[in-house]
Write a structure and sequence with these properties.
Layout (H helix, E strand, L loop, with lengths): L8 H14 L13 H13 L5 H12 L3 H6 L7 H10 L3 H16 L13 E13 L8 E5 L2 E13 L8 E2 L3 E3 L11 H15 L5 E5 L6 H9 L3 E5 L6 H12 L4 E6 L5 E11 L8 E10 L5 E9 L8 H9 L2 H13 L15 H22 L1 H8 L4 H14 L5 H9 L8
Parallel strand pairs: 1-6, 6-7
Antiparallel strand pairs: 1-3, 2-3, 3-4, 3-5, 7-11, 8-9, 9-10, 10-11
Helix pairs in contact: 1-2, 1-6, 2-5, 2-12, 5-12, 6-12, 13-15
């Protein structure tokens, strides 16, 4: 069973270690008991196994056998105490963590794994969307967003996430996130659209040659954000609603009435119909410098002639009969950010909204990024690792699979992640160390 060397667990862990070791440690080396690397890697391991009690079990193994799986699998020399872990990571910078997302993607690219994600014209479809991952009436830090309502104050953290997706691929590939947070010295609250501009610049800087199509909801289909995309050399497929783009829809109605609009209707099973409509070169809004955009909309109509789904988008990609169905698939695939990413992180074992520790500076964001990197590592293993895939298919649910992984990890010491997976798969000639 061949595992791609750099895309198996050990190869990915080594990439993490390399970056963690590069993080500048401002502590006095004469007074440090633990490597900064071990703080980061311990936090990552906790997220990887989705197990807040992981450290307790590994300390028991260390005490009984003078060895533990955090050492053998994650290259952790000493397991930090919980309080130390939070105190040190709260002060840790996040730049090197952001670089890991690019390291992973470049490795996927070098191993030809990224080719299956190519969308229209060789571009990569990258939808962006925001989500809240922390909320409290009491806990707060200087970066917290503040919401006041009826005399009550709530503090929260939000994130803007970009992911590489393909409408036909189950796995998603997250890029480095952008925090929506109050900046030092700023009197104005941060917002998603400003974070959107920052993440576009960040993506282009990290991947200067990547051909990109950005997806997003109606918040982004405005001229200022489209200008940012043009500057970054990116295409787009952005939701455009009649309530937000009245002049655009007036132009669409008028030009369609003049015969400029195109339509494609496809009969589907059970009496359903897919209706595609489009028109090229329509003003985005009523201003003199408005871009000419290409507009398309899609409806699903059931056998009772009732519309069960309808949405519309604008794009800079010229629309024709040959690509309209792919454009609609790309526009609708934006849900993968919410469902395949945020929903999985919040409700499928990663406990994204659990307060692992809030801190006073960077802790909340560091834990978010380590959680996201754990999710990314799992996505890559699902995509590339036959051993992981074989082990996973032996279990009826993801929950059962990870329960078995955690149980095995807690009570036995293994020389590597791969040896543990082989034990779980259970070939007759394999014995644990």
């Amino acid at each position: 069973m061949h595992i791609k060397k750099h895309l198996g667990f050990t190869g990915l862990r080594k990439m993490l270690s390399k970056r963690f070791l590069q993080v500048e440690d401002s502590r006095n080396p004469d007074k440090t008991e633990y490597r900064l690397h071990d703080f980061f890697m311990t936090g990552f391991a906790m997220m990887y196994f989705q197990d807040p009690s992981l450290l307790t079990f590994q300390r028991r193994l260390q005490k009984a056998w003078n060895l533990n799986n955090l050492k053998t699998m994650f290259n952790i020399e000493s397991i930090p105490k919980d309080t130390q872990l939070r105190d040190i990571l709260d002060q840790a910078p996040t730049d090197e963590l952001e670089a890991i997302f690019s390291d992973y993607l470049h490795q996927l690219q070098r191993n030809k794994q990224l080719e299956s994600y190519q969308f229209l014209n060789g571009t990569y479809l990258i939808p962006i969307d925001g989500s809240q991952y922390f909320s409290s009436k009491k806990l707060c830090c200087p970066g917290c967003l503040i919401k006041k309502s009826k005399g009550h104050i709530r503090y929260h953290h939000q994130i803007l996430q970009a992911v590489i997706i393909h409408p036909d691929m189950k796995q998603v590939l997250p890029l480095a996130p952008e925090s929506i947070q109050n900046k030092d010295g700023s009197t104005k609250q941060d917002c998603e659209i400003n974070a959107g501009k920052r993440i576009i610049a960040k993506i282009r800087k990290a991947h200067p040659k990547l051909k990109i199509t950005i997806g997003g909801d109606g918040l982004y289909s405005k001229q200022p954000f489209i200008n940012e995309l043009k500057t970054a050399g990116m295409s787009y497929i952005l939701v455009a609603k009649p309530t937000d783009h009245k002049i655009l829809f007036e132009w669409v109605d008028e030009l369609t009435g003049l015969g400029d609009g195109k339509k494609l209707e496809i009969k589907m099973p059970k009496g359903k119909r897919y209706v595609y409509e489009w028109i090229n070169q329509v003003p985005l809004n009523g201003t003199a410098d408005a871009d000419q955009v290409n507009f398309f909309q899609f409806q699903i109509i059931n056998k009772a002639d009732k519309t069960t789904y309808k949405n519309s988008w604008v794009t800079d990609i010229a629309i024709n009969k040959g690509n309209i169905r792919d454009l609609v698939k790309g526009g609708r695939a934006r849900w993968k950010v919410e469902n395949e990413t945020f929903n999985t992180l919040k409700n499928q074992g990663y406990h994204l909204e659990h307060n692992y520790g809030h801190g006073n500076k960077n802790l909340s964001m560091v834990f978010f990024m380590l959680n996201l990197l754990a999710f990314y590592t799992h996505q890559i293993l699902e995509l590339t690792d036959p051993l992981y895939q074989k082990c996973r298919q032996d279990f009826s649910s993801r929950k059962e699979f990870w329960n078995q992984i955690r149980c095995t990890f807690r009570f036995m010491v293994f020389e590597s992640w791969e040896s543990m997976i082989k034990k779980i798969i259970g070939p007759p000639d394999f014995m644990p160390p």
